[in-house]
Amino acid sequence: MIMERWRATYRLLKYSTFRSFSNYNNSRTFSSERIGSTSCRIQGRSFSSVATTVQRNPLFSSINSDDISYFKDILGDRGVVQDELALVAANTDWMHKYKGSSKLLLQPRSTEEVSQILKYCNSRSLAVVPQGGNTGLVGGSVPVFDEVIINLGSMNKILSFDKVSGILVCEAGCILENLITFLDIQGFIMPLDLGAKGSCQIGGNVSTNAGGLRLLRYGSLHGSVLGLEAVLANGTVLDMLGTLRKDNTGYDLKHLFIGSEGSLGIVTKVSILTPPKLSSVNTAFLACNDYASCQNLLLEAKKKLGEILSAFEFLDSDAMGLVLKHLDGVRNPLPPSVHNFYILIETTGSNESFDRENLEAFLLHSVESGLVTDGVLAQDINQASSFWHIREGLPEALMKAGAVYKYDLSLPLEKMYDLVEEMRAQLDPKAKVVAYGHLGDGNLHLNISAPEYDDKILAKIEPFVYEWTSKNRGSISAEHGLGLMKANKIHYSKSPETVQLMFSIKKLLDPNGILNPYKVLPSTLFS
Amino acid sequence: MIMERWRATYRLLKYSTFRSFSNYNNSRTFSSERIGSTSCRIQGRSFSSVATTVQRNPLFSSINSDDISYFKDILGDRGVVQDELALVAANTDWMHKYKGSSKLLLQPRSTEEVSQILKYCNSRSLAVVPQGGNTGLVGGSVPVFDEVIINLGSMNKILSFDKVSGILVCEAGCILENLITFLDIQGFIMPLDLGAKGSCQIGGNVSTNAGGLRLLRYGSLHGSVLGLEAVLANGTVLDMLGTLRKDNTGYDLKHLFIGSEGSLGIVTKVSILTPPKLSSVNTAFLACNDYASCQNLLLEAKKKLGEILSAFEFLDSDAMGLVLKHLDGVRNPLPPSVHNFYILIETTGSNESFDRENLEAFLLHSVESGLVTDGVLAQDINQASSFWHIREGLPEALMKAGAVYKYDLSLPLEKMYDLVEEMRAQLDPKAKVVAYGHLGDGNLHLNISAPEYDDKILAKIEPFVYEWTSKNRGSISAEHGLGLMKANKIHYSKSPETVQLMFSIKKLLDPNGILNPYKVLPSTLFS
């Protein structure tokens, strides 16, 4: 009976944003995960209030005319931007939450130029902010005060691609979508994909250890980045640009630069292992009665779908209710009955008929065993797109519903939903707790939706959420980094000894602290 | 015609060492890769000649009776080993190439004990060697002089396993095979597998970033290790034992301890992501006319077999000739004609019939397109085992053939075989150049087989091989690390700036240099 529904055709849904097939352009686009994870509205911070939480380091110099002349000598007039309008954009993050007051944007075209800039800035104690596509969510890519902005966008060449090994080498300023397009022609894909792909740069992706939509299948950048070139604060160029899958000659230092948000060095080139593009994609939308079933379904999916499983997303009934209420044209693909949890499963493989049969057999088994209470299997791209739209439309629905307090957490799977329930239990019913996320990655997007922002609600959420996450050895920032926003919250996820060693390494690599100051590490360490 | 052969049954071959199905025991077993990569006979070094290349650091203290008393207070009599026979084994590597003269072996049972030991040794300037299963090939796991041996074997508890996420947490002294057995019952596998699994310990695997047989499919430990606990030289315990797939809160310091061969800290606990066990394994043995076809076949295999490809090994005709000549009972599964290259392909997936059809279709296509000139598909475990035996029997055949100069290199795929041909061109024909390896990983095992060791031959090989590897941005140690053997050769694969930064980090984490001295980094840095 259920299996008939798997084969049913759902033509009533009309969205066409299925992420694997949509037409992206080079304008700034942002994924639901990115929008969904910002807490820009939570704390109601204005530009000024953010700035006042941090004091400008008085040891840093200010730009003078000699500096400008020097940079023009190195970069030419074109590489030295003082235009106010351009600076406003570069000083401001895309959420308009953080705003710096830099008077200078530099656009190097080569590693050598980056090296010359940093060597000079270091000698002059001029603080700098490395900037890629400026699509971050934690205030990591814009100045806090008057730091010099070094934008890598002019270093955007693909240097080599080996079709046998799938290894791509490129400059840091390459826009992710351009790399995806290039690889598509070669029959390969990038091991990471983000909604922000039209703007974000690979150097920024690597520097922030971007997670994105393919992590479940292809793992983190610590696994797929094979090599890096990075420039240290004193201008030293570190050539770690290996293109080898195996290399055990000494400490693998590239990992220091993956996820350190530009605070240890500026990534200038990247070597990355790209997987072959596979032709078969299947998508199913399922319902489960309880969270335990969701967990068990994931376990079964990993066993039965194993090598073809590429996404395992979940949302709860409050999340579904919100989407249905606030997003035009969205319908629940399942008959109008109340389910407690919904799961979106995607498989990606090389054989259409095999994969399809495999998924159908898995779904049938899941229904028979009672893990799944209802479900549909997309018959075409439009249907798949409509399923994804429910999941990806959640942040928009939340924004339309009123005020929203947003948290992006990694938690042990078995405890993840306990937090949601505990949160519900201690909040007034007018504050609705809505949960969704990448169950396959252990990544929960916890949202509290309320009619309006209210400090009393916030006081019941924070520090409770951070403390709960810490107690359960979770991460207070699953994929967005710490930046300025969470630099002082690092202790919720990292031990004092570990943070102390991070600081020692920061001091070792950047003794004057010029690289992306005020970010990542707590300000108390520097005082 | 060819396809008929795919289905042919090869019952004439009688080996039963197929690695996925053989019965391992806890005695020391070593893979062909490990044996195949040692150059212990190349340089003809004796124990004494190895030791004389390094001077004992005069700043290190020597053990006295007070030290022994202190350690007995911490560890009890049982944890303090001074027995001569036990010390001989712990002082000697398994190849009997390196031998130290330590008078003391400590066996801590907890992280706290490791911490107390190191804190004390650091304050007393007593050098230490962390030791796991002592299965390394580069002299990294035994003392050079009288360093205190800290063996982790007593810390062998599995701490937790989450069947939904597949995340295993265990102590560093767990023997790899025990973890594999434990996971097998749970329906999971370790993401790494080594011939040395019966002895090697997970802490040692992580500390040496062991590659092994599953790297093509599951990537390196930098991707699959989710967290670590490590003890620094001064006794500080770094709790980085996260169990999360996503955690972007500060610098990911665990990577410093993956592959640094115990020279930055002692790994005491490991958290690792384990893949589900898949039921379907297929193996084919193919012939190609030229190296370009091997490369193209790999490209096609990655595209067509994509998610199920789990091994892609190659050997050249000289390698095949050697195996057939020197190993009893081995036959070429292909008819007796001369092929230039042989390829072993393995797939691992979740659906027997789908995977089989997929592989058969791929093989048919490869034959039709001319990439493959002949081939067989194993019909059962014994046949698969016989194919693997050809590949894995190579080191044994080489040993039987006479003197052998061995190199374990990572090289860009497109250039890998150029080195073999250049090597052949400049050597006298009595020195036979034999090539095989993990083509899918870009890992070449280059062997020069000669009637006897001859300095004239060696002079034509070294430093040529290292220089050629360096010029082509390869690695002089694909998976075995540098240890004592290659510490002074690091510059062939790493830039001076990178090595300098490694040294700075070593000084930062271990200012007295007590952790695994004389290893990994060049002695010139310490003088």
UniProtKB/TrEMBL annotation, chains A, B:
Named cofactor requirement(s): FAD
This protein's UniProt keywords: FAD, Flavoprotein, Oxidoreductase
EC number: 1.1.99.39
GO terms for MF: (R)-2-hydroxyglutarate dehydrogenase activity
Catalyzed reactions per annotation: (R)-2-hydroxyglutarate + A = 2-oxoglutarate + AH2
Keyword match Repeat: no
EC category name: oxidoreductase
Annotated FAD-binding PCMH-type domain residues: 98-277
Record bears the keyword Flavoprotein: yes
PROSITE patterns: FAD_PCMH (PS51387)
Coiled-coil parts of chain: none
Pfam family, one: FAD_binding_4
SUPFAM superfamilies linked to this entry: FAD-binding/transporter-associated domain-like, FAD-linked oxidases, C-terminal domain
UniProt family annotation: Belongs to the FAD-binding oxidoreductase/transferase type 4 family.
Protein name: D-2-hydroxyglutarate dehydrogenase
Protein's organism: Cinchona calisaya
